Amino acid sequence: MSTFTLRRLLGPLGWILLVPSLLTGLGAAWMLASGLNMMGGTHTTQGRVVAHEEISTGPTHRRGLAKKSVVEFVASDGRRMTFTDPVARQQQAIHKVGETVSVRYSAQNPLQAEISGSTAVKIVAGAVMLLASAIGIAAGWLLLRLRSRPAA
Fold first, then answer.
1. SS (H, E, C) 79-95
2. 57-68 CB burial, b ≥16 within 10 A, e <16
3. pTM of structure
4. CA-wise closest residue to 103 among 127, 82, 124
5. What is the block-wise mean pLDDT of the chain (152 residues), using blocks of 10 residues?
6. CB atoms near residue 92 (< 10 Å)
7. 73 bridge partner residues
8. Which of 1, 18, 50, 102 could form a disulfide with 140 if both were Cys (CB 3.0 to 4.6 A apart)?
9. Contact 82, 71 (CB under 8 A)
């Protein structure tokens, strides 16, 4: 394979790396921002897992492969609140029904709540995805820079 033929492939390969990496980076930034948003201006209390919500992760014959915990807690103003944790766990929920969990919720809007461990999961996963997308963006950009250019 000649150098010219190889250089012609670099352009499409660069775009194939660059576009998905940019989209992944946007998703990772959103995940990281939503996790960091739950770090400030929040209250922490104890809640109880009251149910599990199954979510479909694929075709209908493979339903219920992920579960989210439904948690009930009492906010600082005395109102009883129920929420579904935003992080789904594969196969089974990490917390059993009836288990006590630490809940972090927004001081302004107690309905904006999550299990405290979910905040850490979103921050770590968001940071790892952001790093991976940055590497993909850099590799895609490099491939685009190395592709052959039409003769002037």
1. CEEEEECCCCEECCCCC
2. eeeeeeeeebbb
3. 0.59
4. 82
5. 72 88 89 70 88 73 72 91 82 78 86 79 84 93 80 53
6. 13
7. 47, 81
8. 18
9. yes
